[in-house]
Amino acid sequence: MSDLSFYVHIPYCVRRCGYCDFNTYTPSELLDNGTLETVSGDYIDAVLLELALAKKSAAGKIPTIFFGGGTPSLLPAADLGRVISAIRQGWDVSDDCEITLEANPDSVDVVKIAQLREAGFNRISFGMQSAVPHVLKVLDRTHQPENIAKVVEFARAAGFDSVSLDLIYGSPGESLDNWRTTVEAAPFKRLRTDCRNGHETSKSNKTW
Ligand code: SF4
After folding, report:
1. What is the pLDDT of residues 142-180, one digit of tens each?
2. Rg (CA), the chain
């Protein structure tokens, strides 16, 4: 039986970053006066229906499950856990399956991170992007750079096997010194992260 991996897309963000061309929506883009709860309330049920359909046509052993977006960490951990449970019930999930959640540092705290671990995630990827305030501002990112070390420690304390950081380089107005500051602020050993991913900002202000 061949391997089969799942990517679960959660298409919501509280705010749209100017460089972003991912398939994601703020609540007000979807509904006048919409809130995250009103626009996302039945989304997980829809994902579960998709999984039921997929079960009829796709078989395989599951080595990885990845929740991306959007900002999947905005949704309640219990709802995300319902998806993991459905995949476990429907497929042969390998014992060492890597189950990843992309997380915005602003959307999680020590309690939420513990709940996410409890829900079945064993890898978490934080959108750090930069350690330099003016670069974060040009990217429309709202988190405080100092939050990164905190959430990484929360993730380690909660028992995440793997923690990664997403970084962006080449942003408008970013100097080489700025980039060096960012890389030095996210040292592999000090923050005990397992992976750092770099994305270049293209001339059209989009990333790939
Ligand atoms: S948080 Fe990520 S997915 Fe959401 S708008 Fe910003 S870059 Fe796009």
Report:
1. 888 888 999 999 999 999 989 999 999 999 999 999 999
2. 17
